[in-house]
Amino acid sequence: MPEFSLIIVLVIALALIFDFTNGFHDTANAMATPIATGAMKPKVAVGVAAILNLVGAFLSTEVARTVSGGIIKEGDGGVLITPELIFAGLIGAIVWNLVTWLMGLPSSSSHALFGGLIGATIIGIGTQAVDYNVVAAKVILPALIAPLIAGGVALVATRLAYTITRRDVGKPDGRGGFRYAQIFSSSLVALAHGTNDAQKTMGVITLTLIAGGFQAVGSGPTFWVIAACALAIAVGTYTGGWRIIRTMGTGLTEIKPAQGFAAETSTAATILASSHLGFALSTTQVASGSVIGSGLGRRGSTIRWGMAGRIALGWVMTLPASAIMGAFAAGLALLGPIGIVLDMVIGTIVIMALFRWSRRNRVSHHTLLNDIDDAGRVVNIKKTPRRPTRRGRGDRKKVSL
Amino acid sequence: MIDWSAFLIVSAASLFSAALLVSLYSLGLRLLTTAGRIPLVEPHEFTGAITVLSPKKAAKQVKRARKAAAANPLAPGLKRLALYAGYACFVLCGIAVLYGVYLIVPALHR
User: Fold this and answer.
1) If you compute the radius of gyration of chain A from its CA atoms, what whole number of angstroms results?
2) Chain A CB contacts of B9 below 8 Å
3) Is A386 within the bounds of a domain?
């Protein structure tokens, strides 16, 4: 069946493209904070992120199993998802991913992927084909809870870091030393990103191979799948770096080394713990949650609710919006080979148009800002917070640090 | 079926590990500072986020750190102790990270 193999090849290629855009979209998650505090040179940071994403992808396959084995009931007693539907889901995910990126809306590549797949499955097979329990337990709930966990952890960690290193006013506190720590903590985030995000694409490719009958139902990703996904996400991460490097100078949110270190450690801990349990959470959301939490851990901070609401809206919208796109693409794909070709043509046109548009507007403020920076703006920190009055301390001479 | 205990595990594990790492590293920094070895790490590249540090200001910081170190009330032995304790904190922090990585890679303990 040559036709059948062709669609599988197409799906794999598309999945790798998605993986690339995922890395491209997410370089900032790991590297925005160390670059913002000057802990690492931007070019070095981007290179390190790419390498560690590559390594991280090889470390664990729990999340890939969640994607390939849970969300859509395949195999015995379930329904057969066809490669055409996966193809449609991927088109929906990629288009939504690029649209949100260009509009400067915070979104999550992972949710775009799941939304696209779910939408395509519902149109193609019916609402009974989606395992809503798994979707709720392993996708939606982690998406809501993980940023909160990360934020809470970051708040505690930031308080700890500041409390432990606090010294009397005017005495040097050595907090610049957190810059060294940031090199390691941000590397850990990049590694964690590889263990969670590269896995999602592996899961999709494995799902396709299972659907095509090349692999047993319930089996994990094979080595070449892992290697290809690792490579795609690493290249995406590296090429995504130019965006960050360009953002420099336009003014990132102010982040202090101690705060950045606490935020990165919390992000890495949350993602790694969740990856270990097979939760496919959004790394962007976790990193944003951490940055907000660590901002709140600093003295004199208040939340800008408008900004927080905008970010939350972007998060909530991603799943249904990409589901609609996936459903639309699936509707076309069900027309047969003509539909697939139509899907591809439309997808290519949209991607090319968006790309052209992005090149034209590449210095505009919004496209260059990344999600993490948006998250940083949620918290407003007074420039010179008042120290709490403690006896013997309140009347000391104030020295601006 | 929603496995609520898994969320509890994730939050507890993240909180514990992040708090541990941050505390160890901060304690290490604090001890170094106490020992009179105040780490002054200049940012690699000035971005919009960092207050720009002029060479004059940087020199002032160095001077202040030196002055603070000279005015350190600790006896030399105590200073050395604080320094070594600080290094020990960094080493422990590193070990904790490596152990965490070991825990999440199934290939290492199967």
Assistant:
1) 22
2) 273, 277
3) no
Q: Does A23 reside within a domain? A: yes
ipTM of model: 0.82
What residue segments make up the domains of chain B, in order of their start? 4-109
Which of A372, A35, A182, A40 has its CA nearest to residue B47?
A35
Q: Does residue A90 sit within a domain? A: yes
Range of the domain at A25: 2-381
Residue with tokens 């470390």: A59
The three state secondary structure string of A241-256 is: HHHHHHHCCCCCCCCC
The pTM of the full predicted model, rounded to 2 decimals, is 0.79
Q: What single string gives the DSSP state of each residue in A328-387? A: HHHHHHTT-HHHHHHHHHHHHHHHHHHHHHHHHTTTSHHHHS-HHHHHHHHEEE-SSPPP
Closest CB from A161, A172, A175 relative to B64: A172
In chain A, what are the helix, strand and coil shares in percent, each to the nearest 5?
75, 0, 25
What tens digit of pLDDT does each residue of A30-80 get?
Answer: 777 787 777 787 788 888 888 888 888 888 777 777 666 665 555 544 556
Q: How many domains does chain A have?
A: 1
For residue B52, CA distances in Å to A143, A324, B44, B55, B57 come to 38, 47, 12, 10, 9
Residue A211 domain-assigned? yes
- Is residue A252 within 8 angstroms of chain B, CB to CB? yes
Scan for tokens 């090849």, then name that residue: A9
